[in-house]
Amino acid sequence: MQLVTMSADLSPDDRQRLEQLMEHLKEHVNHNQEDQRKMILRWFTSRLGNRLFSNHYRQLLLELANLMSSIWVGSPNFRSSEEVLNWLQETSVPSNVAHLDEHRKEQA
Predict the structure, then answer these.
(1) Which domain of life is it from (predicted)?
(2) What is the reported pTM?
(3) Which of 5, 38, 78, 90 has the fewest CB atoms within 10 Å, i.e. the most exposed one?
């Protein structure tokens, strides 16, 4: 984690914030934490700004996403930075909405 953040040219404060977020989320290792992982990756990409367009920083994004995926899901999920960026653009359906949709289908 420290290697990824050091390679990203984040300020010491930003690096410390990211590391604290990761440490906090490690306590929930048995849960998917998809929303939290997306929040961290979105924060990371916003801090990178225009640097995200260089291959070096796209590789860092991929490594960070796969690191978090390995911690919380058990294996890397992404093969490219494009997959990560597309995943970040997805909006998740809250479980209560998905449950209502299933209930409506059963009633029909």
Answers:
(1) Bacteria
(2) 0.57
(3) 90
Number of domains comprising the chain: 1
Tell me whether residue 60 is exposed, middle or buried, using C-beta atoms within 10 angstroms of its C-beta: 0 to 12, 13 to 18, 19 or more. Answer: buried
Domain range for 57:
2-107
Token reading at 9: 């040219």
Q: What are the φ and ψ backbone dihedral angles of 52, each rounded to 5 degrees? A: -60, -20
H-helix or E-strand spanning residue 65:
helix 55-72
Which stretches of 1-108 are assigned E, i.e. beta strand?
none
* pLDDT average per 10 residues of sequence, the chain (108 residues): 63 81 66 79 87 87 88 84 91 50 54
Q: What pLDDT does 79 receive?
A: 93
